[in-house]
Design goal:
By secondary structure, this protein is α/β, with parallel strands linked by helices. About 40% of the residues lie in helices and about 25% in strands. It has two domains: about 80 residues, Urease, subunit C, domain 1, CATH 2.30.40.10; about 290 residues, TIM Barrel (Alpha-Beta Barrel), CATH 3.20.20.140. The longest helix is centred in the middle third of the chain and has 33 residues.
């Protein structure tokens, strides 16, 4: 691969922003030179950031079902998702794959699972993707056959993360049942009577299946060295269980107490970009901004809006006095990568992968101008 020089840039390094140039050779960062002459591609003062690393996104599933009752062809759906991811500056994405769901077997995560997996594997094998796509197994513990579904996929080498979740109403994400009703009536168009039946069934399934399924999935992942994430922890007991299970990431804790205890227990705290950009949680839980202000936010996930990842970094740097741009960018690149063992990317440091993006800041709005993955232009 020919040498590439990106000059005249405001380089956002792990600890400081410097004016200079980055030299790329063979897909790796060869040199970071402060004050270097403007050679090669001239950024004209635009920012140079590391490629973003997304640990948890449901975005792919939405391309398979763009409207209620509509199923889109698999390969077209995954490539549309990939294009949106790359255009948002994300060079490594963990596609969340539902191993069980709160809705049941008619949920898109179950109905289209095999088609989604086949399309992703084919696109990866044929070098059709812009970003690097890995799998994040979202394991709904109350789903009766979740362990069978995990077993079908867990030995795929692209599986690099698994999360344990339980969306039963009355706890974790939905401690307030009124918020649960509001959300699921809108999402699934339930009537009040249908929702009553659904809630009763969910609570029964949780009582029967959640505990044994959680133990089974944790054991399967730990035996294979797959990093584990907790999800929607709300209480000290939830966090204590996550720490005992050796989890490294705490996804979307719903209270300050859970976030603080997760951090003390050695986990990295993840919050959603949409939560941060909207100024609050749609479930009525703690806001990402409040945790950031208390120094309890380590990683941002775009969740269901890919562009929110980059925008969150600039929002954090603007709104949180203790969080400058390098620290904010670490939350969307280096920290998520290293939390799950990907130590070869996420920072503009010599020797790491040349996953990079050019960003212009126009009236406070970050705009992606170009994206490179391992030195190859992808957007």
């Amino acid at each position: 691969m020919a040498e590439m020089i990106l000059g005249g840039a405001r380089i956002v390094g792990p600890d400081a922003v410097i004016d200079g140039a980055v030299v790329v050779r063979d897909g790796r960062i060869a040199e970071v030179a402060a004050g270097a002459a403007r050679r090669g591609e001239d950024f004209a003062g635009d920012y140079l950031l590391p490629g973003l690393v997304e640990l948890h996104t449901d975005n792919m599933e939405r391309h398979f079902a763009p409207r209620p009752g509509v199923r889109w062809p698999g390969m077209s759906a995954v490539l549309a998702h990939d294009g949106q991811i790359a255009a948002a500056g994300i060079t490594t994405v963990f596609d969340a794959v539902g191993m069980g769901t709160v809705r049941g077997d008619d949920d898109i995560r179950i109905a289209a699972l095999d088609e989604m997996l086949a399309a992703v594997k084919t696109a990866r094998a044929r070098d059709m993707f812009r970003a690097e796509h890995l799998f994040h197994l979202r394991c709904e513990t109350s789903y009766p056959t979740v362990l069978d579904r995990i077993a079908r996929l867990i030995d795929d080498p692209a599986v690099k993360l698994a999360s344990v979740m339980d969306h039963t109403p009355g706890q974790r994400q939905f401690t307030r049942e009124d918020k649960f009703r509001e959300y699921y009536k809108g999402k699934f168009q339930f009537t009040d009577a249908e929702l009553d039946t659904y809630i009763a069934a969910q609570k029964e399934r949780c009582a029967r299946w959640s505990a044994p399924n959680r133990r089974g999935m944790v054991e399967m992942c730990r035996a294979r060295g797959i990093p584990l994430a907790s999800h929607d922890d709300a209480t000290a007991a939830h966090v204590a269980e996550a720490v005992a299970d050796g989890m490294v990431v705490a996804e979307f804790p719903t209270t300050v107490e859970a976030a603080r205890l997760s951090r003390e227990g050695g986990m990295k705290v993840v919050m959603g970009g949409p939560n941060l950009m909207r100024g609050g949680s749609h479930s009525g839980n703690i806001s990402a901004g409040a945790l950031a202000a208390q120094g309890l936010l380590d990683i941002v996930s775009s969740d269901y809006v890919p562009v929110s990842l980059l925008e969150s970094a600039f929002r954090l740097a603007r709104d949180i006095p203790e969080m400058d741009l390098p620290r904010a960018v670490r939350a969307v690149a280096q920290t998520p990568a290293e939390a799950v063992g990907l130590d070869d990317r996420g920072a503009i440091v010599a020797g790491r992968r040349a996953d990079l993006l050019r960003v212009a800041l126009i009236e406070g709005q970050p705009v992606v101008r170009a994206v490179w993955r391992e030195g190859r232009r992808i957007a």
